[in-house]
Amino acid sequence: MISKILVPSDGSKSAQRAAGYAVDLAKQLKASIIALSVIDMRSLIAQTVPALETARHTIEPIEDYLREAAEGYAGEIKKLCDKSGVASKISIKMGHPVEEIVKEAKRSKADLIVMGSHGRSALSATVLGSVSYGVIHNDASIPILIVKG
Question: If the chain, 149 residues long, is cut into consecutive pieces of 10 residues, what is the mean pLDDT of each piece?
């Protein structure tokens, strides 16, 4: 039986669509939702300034901004849950999205992961690093429902 559904979100349209599916499913199953958003600092720092040259006072405001954005993404899922009468909680993590999604699913004993996908091909997902592709191939013990955007 499905009683806990993990819903990771990066704020994208496909993640929002997946959240809608997850909330509808949770309502039908009388399950709860764990809204997860992962802050991935590595990609931001790697694309802007080399880590050795980055001052701490520059990183802290970026972290604050990313945390606010992550809380907003998870908060949107919580609002959907509240509107539908579905129990929910928010989890904000920092790290590599694939690893953090799998860790949170195990830690919270989720019965299902519902997440969006941008619909990239397997080749482009491998080259570009699709999170949904990574989660599917990282853990086989928890069922995953992928919703195309």
Answer: 96 94 98 96 56 55 87 96 98 94 96 85 52 83 89
Instruction: Give yes or no for a contact between 74 and 8, defined as CB atoms under 8 angstroms apart.
Output: no
The CA distance from 115 to 64, in Å, is: 25
Give the number of domains in the chain: 1
Which residues span the domain enclosing 115?
A: 4-148
Q: Are 103 and 49 in contact (CB under 8 A)?
A: no
Residue 56's contacts (CB-CB under 8 Å, 6 or more residues apart) are none
Dihedral sign from CA coordinates of 56, 40, 80, 29: negative
* Stated pTM of the model: 0.83
Let me know: does 31 contact 2? Beta carbons within 8 Å.
yes
Check which CATH number belongs to the domain holding 127 and give it: 3.40.50.620
CB 18, CB 115: distance < 8 Å = yes
